[in-house]
Amino acid sequence: MSNEPLVITVPSMFCFPPFYEKGDMLYIDKCNFGLCTEKLAQPFFYDILYESKVSNSKLWPWQFKESCSILLKQWDSRKEEISGLLRRRNQQRAREPMCRSIANFIDLMFWMHHIPVKFEHEITDSFSLLSYRPINVEERLKFILERPDHYLSFVQLNELYTECGKKMIVKQAREKK
Predict the structure, then answer these.
(1) Whether the Cβ atoms of residue 82 and residue 59 lie closer than 8 Å to each other
(2) Which residues contact 96 (CB under 8 A, 6 or more apart)?
(3) Which residues of the chain have a pLDDT value below 50?
């Protein structure tokens, strides 16, 4: 059995700045497709894996509400680091964790509806399909994506996570009825 990583070309629907460009590749450990924070560091890892149909997995993160809790906890643990970097005006070092956090927020939006991320022409095109979403999420996310390394984008992303967490609680309560 080979230990070489699986190489996947990122599907064009995920090729949007600041995440991926056309022709980008993902190198994946074949042994472990389970949900872990290491995999969440690669934007849309599970969504790309699903779209590429390279895994015969029947279990995906959007099928479990715990996945959304993991994404929210990850933001809670990452936001202090990002805030500190931006307060010290270290935009260059803040960019990468901000971009990961933006991708995780988008995952959160879709996964709380039990579906994988799927983009049409723009990143925000598919948000209208989501019944539980923060107010004006499309415009707010466009602002964040245009300048992911600015403090105001961080503040806006933090608000989106907070609002999305509240929407998730409402959705879960309604699903229990």
Answers:
(1) no
(2) none
(3) 1
